[in-house]
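Subject: complex prediction, re-run

Hi both,

The earlier run crashed halfway through, so I resubmitted it with identical inputs.
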Amino acid sequence: MATMTMVQALNAAMDEMLTRNGDVVVLGEDVGYFGGVFRCTEGLQRKHGRTRVFDTPITEAGIMGIAVGMAAYGLRPVAEMQFADYIYPACDQLISEAARLRYRSAGEFTAPVTVRAPYGGGIFGGQTHSQSPEAIFTHVAGIKTVIPSTPFDAKGLLISAIEDDDPVMFFEPKRLYNGPFEGYHDRPVVPWSRHPASEVPEGHYAIPLGKAATVRSGAAVTILAYGTMVHVALAAARDAQVDAEILDLRTLVPVDIEAIEASVRKTGRCVIVHEATRTGGFGAELSALVQEHCFHHLEAPIERVTGWDTPYPHAFEWEYFPGPARIAEALRRVMEE
Amino acid sequence: MDAPLPCPAPLSLHVPEPPQRPGSEIDFSALSVPPAGAARRPDTDCSAADMTDLAYDLVRVLDDEGHAVGPWAPALDPDTLLRGLRSMMTVRAYDERMQRAQRQGKTSFYMKCTGEEAIAVAQGMALDRADMLFPTYRQQGLLIARDWPLADMMCQVYSNAGDRLKGRQMPVFYSSREAGFFSISGNLGTQYSQAVGWAMASAIKGDTRIAAAWIGEGATAEGDFHHALTFASVYRAPVILNLVNNHWAISSYHGIAGGERTTFAARGLGYGIPSLRVDGNDFLAVFAATRWAAARARANLGPTLIELFTYRAAAHSTSDDPGKYRPENAGARWPLGDPIDRLRRHLIGLGIWSEARHEALGQEVAAAVQAAGKEAEALGTLDKGPFHSARTMFEDVYKTMPWHLERQRRQAGI
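This time it finished cleanly. Structure:
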């Protein structure tokens, strides 16, 4: 089995689906000849042709509207938003159209579009290249929201997303594209080749949407995380020397409530981490779900460790980023209760 | 150093105003209506640059006497012409019945297309049955031209037990995959780029079907209009981009959408899209222009923009009172006339129609609409039901119902 970076794994997923299914097309700004600014679509146009993988004008709203029309025809478009920060112009087509097309036409028309968007900070992208807007989409009925944290998951989840008959918002943690990031900005990035989850099988495999992964078993506290924060949470649990169980949610909608419930009932404590701003973030939904489903099992108040409610600042990335120290602090707090 | 400039006059903002408001005389004299038959008909492989005149002119076929004249006269057989007339009359009778039903409280809302019947009917007939249509809420004539059952449309308006859309959409937001009629959105203009995407998909797959989209002149200010033109031009999408200029976006006259400075058809020229401006009340002109654009699309020559120049004779919707913002009965004085009357006169001139037959047809379509109405009302109306089970509210959000919707459905007790 080959080791791959997340970029290579995503590329392999699209390559596999373009090969298997003649209805799959890949479109977006710079995704064709150049292979995407993050190189995720490198070589796909050369291999599959210009009508299967093609560059688009710079209009996210246009890309999304075109993708909805293509999906209504019967294709399975994979649309790349160059940065998740640029997705807002596409929101009307995604939220008002793609998400509701099945509902409003009672299943006569559907929009099985996969929207890929690199999200999150840690690359000095300032406030326009660092956002984590996943909560906006988790609030929309009709869209599924998926975020991988490893090359293995990235390929399997992207294949599932493309095969899914509903629109899927697929956020890619760009800080993890080339290596796992544990949140220590002053340490060198370890390449994916030294991480077990970079072993990516050849060919087709699918990781079902809606299923979380237990990335670390533990008995004292449950950490709910996704994307980059899975790796940061692992580092924090190690630093705090807490017997934490870490769930990588992988899919935010529909979220794996069974896994969350089983883990929190076992540990009695819950820390939720995400990089996005706190207020109205997906952590709020997770917190409410844990309260609804596990209240009588809780031994400490639920903690949230998140980005601050500010735009992502360029010079103060590391103060903004919820790193291992902040998570470790929260772990210690819940363990004191 | 330069001498100081004299103090300029203060700047002032131009806010477009329609020429007439309620209480003033109806006056369309400023409107320039070229004679029928005068506009040239270029070859379908003509470039946008070589037909700029047609984006400012007005393609007209039927003259004031009802004769079909000029190079755009489509030479349709009597059967096609009579089907067109019947469909337009059906649309009008349907609109009247459904408007009345709304006034009787049987539904919440309705939108007529009075004065614009030629557009949807002629265009629906000029396209192939398999082509995909991306309409606005004022192209009910497309469904009728495709012989879609009136009772089915009425069930949608009533949100009743027979509504295939399960009571989810506002009245007139039809959808029929089988009729090639794309689900209507209330967010204006979104269908435009979707139609281009559909057309691009058809081209990618080597299909022979084309797409057609409609937008109102007001909604051309929406981004989707411009995204659609960019994509259609860039990828030479096999799509017909129709733009219905009926002069009124609710109470805002077309000057507010940019219609004072140029034509709406001219918007296409900047994108390199061949563009036509067509008399939208002229069944034959609309038919011919649509056929021309369809031939271009089918020959891989790419998109065409067609501005259909017409007038919204009725209110915007049952929630609107046009007497508050424009002179009463302005629609009746529209210089391009009534599309049904114009086709009727043409048919009589051809010797294939008569006033007596026209009257009989009027009674026939009224009876058909009435029968469909009874059929639909037997399945329920919005004020009394019956409806689908409220349980269906949770269906079709996703292909399979996820746990949280299952749970909410149980909480709702349905």
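Chain B is about 35% helix and 5% strand.

- K.
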